[in-house]
Specification:
Elements: H1 6-69, H2 80-96, E1 100-106, E2 112-117, E3 123-124, H3 134-140, E4 145-146, E5 150-152, E6 156-164, E7 172-178, H4 183-187, E8 196-200, E9 206-208, H5 212-216, H6 225-235, E10 255-262, E11 267-274, H7 275-278, H8 280-326, H9 341-407, H10 415-444, E12 452-455, H11 456-473, E13 477-480, E14 486-489, H12 491-507, E15 513-521, E16 524-531, H13 565-575, E17 581-585, E18 589-597, E19 627-631, H14 635-647, E20 651-655, H15 658-665, E21 674-677, H16 687-698, E22 704-708, H17 713-721, E23 726-728, H18 733-745, H19 750-759
Parallel strand pairs: 13-15, 19-20, 19-21, 21-22, 22-23
Antiparallel strand pairs: 1-2, 1-7, 2-3, 4-6, 5-6, 6-7, 8-9, 8-11, 10-11, 12-14, 15-16, 16-18, 17-18
Helix pairs in contact: 1-8, 8-9, 9-10, 10-13, 11-12, 12-13, 15-16
């Protein structure tokens, strides 16, 4: 056995240290609690014995006082026959109470009329004046009096007891009591072999002790720490006796002590035991524990040597095997036959090696699969970009050809047709840009839902206003069923989802109509769009939610959209905490639905109007001669919009920012009737700030429109909060003119004004 092997020495020392520390800690804890328990038991025993002795002395003294007070004589006038009767009663009492040595009868005036004594001759009518005696004064008031201890002829301790006559005429009986009879009480108290009890009075002088000579010597024990602590505790100036660790006997030897007060006398009973005797069982226990500890340490040393030897060889085998497996030799197996946890650990290493072999093979397979998935994704992304590039090039190509036709001198007769084609191309290009931007934001995770409580009627009203003219132009019926409910969702994202539903329904329905309705489903509201279109086959219902998919237009007719609407919906629905529900019958129609939570607070109020209470021109006023302000930091967009409004007959001021617009308005006496403003102006102010500055300077709330290329939910939510309508660039002139005509010619109702004021 190689005792100098580092691993062996390390394990042997560790095991010995652990065993030794465990045994030492265990022994120390056991000794500590044994010591505490032994002291607590001893203290409890001494307190019980002290309390019992105090109770015995109290009963003994109170019984004497009771016997003295109940000496019965019919009258106490002090005449000769009556004094004889008192004398007879006193003699009876002396026979019953050996501790009483002398009895005196004192009349109500404080004169001694009778004395009966074991030690002196009896006398009558001594007429000694005792009216100033403290005992007579206390008993004359109807209370029993116990005098301080005094020693008769400087030997035996005595105490006087004064008791009032039970007849209530003021006579008093004075008794002298020999206290050596309390010795019998304290001598019966034994604590161990050398323990004892003793009694001291209120001044610390010894009253009773197993050694009667100490009492006869008038020993004063007030200097002992335990007696001094008891007297101080009675006076309220000392600590409890349990905290006195320096208790000693008269010879100065340390003792364990407990005391109890004798309540009617103000005395104390002390029960003490020498500390050496009290702790002897504890010292014996310590010796036994030390022997057991030494034996246990020896056994631990021997066992640790054997255990360390049995552990070193398997551990070295495990170390060698782990190094080989770590070096890449996954086929190596460790052989340990110890029959314990080390063998199980070796088997686990072997299983780990096998699992690593399988994991490497599986990892290589998954890497290959992931590589194929990435290639497929790249191909899909390439197809997506190719399709988007194709759809971008087509309208741009058409626009370039149409512009060339406009420049041809011989095509002026076809001018209106060419303009209509240009407008269609611009609209298709704008829709494609919007959809591509939405798809890219959703893919990048840049869109987050902002949930709030709102009336669903506001969203449905916007849907109806947006698609009713389109459906009417196509000869379809669009019906939006009214509903009085409030939901907890994102109004901007929810309107985008429903707009795509209705847009597809109108686009793919040739006859019949489109119905938008709501239905309560527990704590949710289901919003559904029904159409009577061509329907969707069962095997293509997942395909319609992919990009650039048009089932009934395999060549992707751009007149029927770009195939991105439902792909956007599929990404928006999870942001709203919902999913798209689809039911369809080919040839009969389809139903698209989404569910949103109902708001906790539901009321019957209608929603606030989408527009604020603007300045109202004359009812039905055309755009001609309307004074409009255009604010846009892009010079080309500003000039184009100014020219468009001028062509419609408007008087237009165009500025690049709010400060320039206010400077131009200061040169006119007429207040503007309309403000069209970009949202992002390239400075610290935005379009809403500019509109408010113009309204404040003009002292009127004229209509205002935000025209912006920022279609983010945050911007739309801010505009909705401030009650400003938004048109996203590129803006169709027809849509702009329709909105201007609506704002200028059809002002809000009185109820809309009141609701807006409450909302503000």
């Amino acid at each position: 056995m190689k005792l100098r092997e580092p691993l062996f020495v390390k394990y042997a020392a560790l095991i010995v240290a652990l065993a030794g520390i465990s045994l030492l800690v265990s022994g120390a804890i056991e000794i500590y609690f044994s010591h505490r328990q032994h002291r607590a038991t001893l203290a409890e025993l001494q307190r019980d014995k002290a309390a019992a002795a105090a109770s015995s002395v109290s009963r003994y003294v109170e019984e004497l006082a009771h016997q003295i007070g109940w000496v019965i004589v019919p009258a106490s006038s002090g005449s000769g026959p009556e004094l004889e009767k008192w004398r007879v009663e006193y003699l009876k009492l002396l026979r019953l109470a050996p501790a009483i040595t002398t009895l005196r009868f004192v009349d109500p005036h404080g004169l001694e009329r009778l004395q009966v004594s074991r030690m002196d001759a009896d006398r009558m009518n001594g007429k000694t004046d005792l009216s100033g005696d403290p005992g007579f004064i206390t008993a004359h008031d109807g209370r029993v009096h116990f005098s301080p201890i005094y020693f008769f002829e400087q030997t035996e301790p005595y105490m006087s007891i004064a008791a009032p006559d039970t007849s209530g005429d003021g006579a008093v009986t004075l008794a002298e009591v020999n206290l050596k009879f309390i010795w019998a009480v304290v001598t019966e108290i034994k604590v161990g072999e050398r323990g004892y009890a003793y009694v001291v009075d209120a001044r610390g002088r010894l009253v009773a002790h197993p050694d009667i000579h100490r009492v006869l010597q008038m020993t004063d024990l007030s200097g002992l720490p335990q007696v001094r602590a008891a007297l101080a505790q009675r006076d309220g100036t000392g600590a409890s006796l349990e905290s006195v660790e320096s208790a000693v006997d008269p010879q100065g030897q340390p003792v364990f002590t407990a005391h109890a007060a004798i309540s009617p006398l103000g005395w104390y009973v002390f029960v003490e035991q020498p500390r050496s005797e009290a702790l002897a069982p504890l010292y014996a226990s310590l010796s036994r524990h030390a022997i057991v500890l030494l034996l246990a340490l020896g056994l631990a040393l021997l066992a640790s040597l054997l255990l360390a030897r049995s552990m070193v060889a398997p551990i070295r085998e495990l170390q060698s095997g782990a190094q080989k497996i770590g070096a890449g030799n996954l086929g190596h197996r460790i052989h340990v036959e110890s029959g314990d946890e080390l063998q199980e650990l070796a088997e686990q290493f072997n299983r780990m090696g096998a699992q690593l072999q399988e994991s490497y093979a599986d990892l290589e397979r998954r890497i290959a699969e992931r590589t194929r998935d990435l290639e497929t994704a790249n191909q899909g992304k390439s197809r997506f970009l190719a399709a988007a590039s194709h759809d971008l090039r087509q309208p741009i190509h058409a626009l370039s050809l149409l512009v060339a036709q406009m420049r041809s001198p011989g095509r002026w007769a076809d001018r209106n047709e060419i303009v209509a084609q240009i407008e269609a191309g611009v609209a298709a290009l704008g829709n494609l840009f919007d959809d591509l931007l939405d798809i890219s934001k959703l893919e990048a995770g840049a869109v987050a839902a902002q949930l709030e409580d709102f009336a669903i009627s506001a969203v449905l009203g916007a849907i109806n206003a947006q698609f009713a003219p389109v459906a009417r132009e196509k000869g379809l019926r669009l019906k939006v069923l009214p509903v009085n409910a409030r939901v907890h969702s994102d109004p901007v994202l929810l309107q985008r989802v429903l707009s795509n539903f209705v847009s597809n329904a109108v686009r793919y329905t040739e006859r019949g109509g489109v119905l938008v309705g709501c239905r309560r489903r527990g704590a949710s509201l289901q919003i559904a769009v029904w159409d009577s279109g061509c329907g969707i086959p069962e095997d293509h219902r997942e395909d319609i939610f992919r990009e650039f998919v048009q089932l009934h237009s395999p060549d992707r007719d751009r007149g029927k959209g770009l195939g991105l609407g439902l792909a956007i919906v599929a990404r928006l629905a999870p942001l709203l905490g919902s999913r798209v529900q689809l039911r369809s019958v080919p040839g009969r129609g389809s139903m698209f639905a989404i569910s949103v939570p109902l708001a906790e607070a539901q009321d019957e109020r209608t929603g606030v109007s989408s527009f604020p209470p603007y300045y109202e021109p004359t009812q039905g006023a055309p755009l001609r001669s309307v004074f409009a302000v255009v604010v846009d930091d892009d010079e080309a967009a500003r000039a184009a919009l100014q020219g468009l409004l001028a062509g419609w007959g408007c008087l237009t001021l165009a500025a690049r920012g709010g400060t320039e617009a206010l400077a131009m308005l200061a040169q006119h006496d007429r207040a503007p009737e309309l403000v069209i403003c970009d949202y992002h102006l390239g400075s610290e102010e935005n379009g809403i700030d500019v509109i408010r500055r113009i309204q404040a300077a003009s002292e009127c709330s004229m209509p205002a429109i935000l025209v912006t290329a920022d279609g983010s939910p945050e911007m739309l939510r801010i505009a909705r909060y401030h009650q400003y309508p938004v048109l996203l660039k590129p803006v169709a002139p027809a849509k702009l003119r329709a909105l201007l005509t609506q704002l200028l010619a059809k002002g809000p109702s009185r109820r809309d004004r009141e609701l807006y004021q409450k909302a503000v």
